[in-house]
Amino acid sequence: MTGSPVAGVSVDGDFALDELRVRLDVSALFTRRWKIAGRLSSQRDDMAAREELARVWQELVRTGVLEPKAVSGLFRVQVDGESFRIREPGSGESVELVFRRADTLRTAAEPDIIGLQLVTLGKGVADHAADLGRVGRVREQFLWHGLAAELTEAQAVLCEERLRAKAGWSS
Predict the structure, then answer these.
(1) Kind of pairing, strands 69-80 and 83-87?
(2) With a threshold of 0.90, does the pTM exceed it?
(3) 123-165 pLDDT, tens digit each
């Protein structure tokens, strides 16, 4: 991919709560994480789930423990059958990742670009969940953990949006 941007690793700590909230998959939170609402649930269950979200969200804001960060980068990659050979910009060093699959990846003569990312909400989120468990607030711990898991997913979506914009790729 000639002319495609390749940047090394960058660290991003600029994630506003509002940006994460709008990307929060509320349906996944209620059905998969909290198991209190879903396709067959009543309107009352949905309302109760939304009230729980508002309450747990207020606690999240009040505690101030959220410290979202991301590490991401765009790298040249050579695809060969089951492997990716990823090159570090500048140094030329590479690492090979092998994906054992029934259907192998295409082999490309020209290098391609891959975006990689890691996201975290910070240690404070896990510490707060542990504190809730220590004082016997197990239900609160469960709700907190579910919200944190889905917020991490929302953060990954936002990070991907930013990485695609940096690369000039359409959404």
Answers:
(1) antiparallel
(2) no
(3) 999 999 999 999 999 999 999 999 999 999 999 999 999 998 8
Q: 51 with 134, same domain?
A: yes
Domain extent at residue 60: 13-71+119-166
Tokens of 66: 């959220």
Instruction: Please list the residues that pair with 120 across neighbouring strands.
Output: 69
Longest Cα–Cα distance in the chain: 59
Domain match, 63 and 80 both: no
Classify residue 7: in a domain, yes or no.
no
Give the model confidence (pLDDT) of 35-72 as tens digits: 886 655 677 778 888 999 999 999 999 999 999 999 99
Core vs surface per residue 136-169: b (16+ CB within 10 A) or e: eeeebbbbbbbbbebbbbbbbbbbbebbeeebee
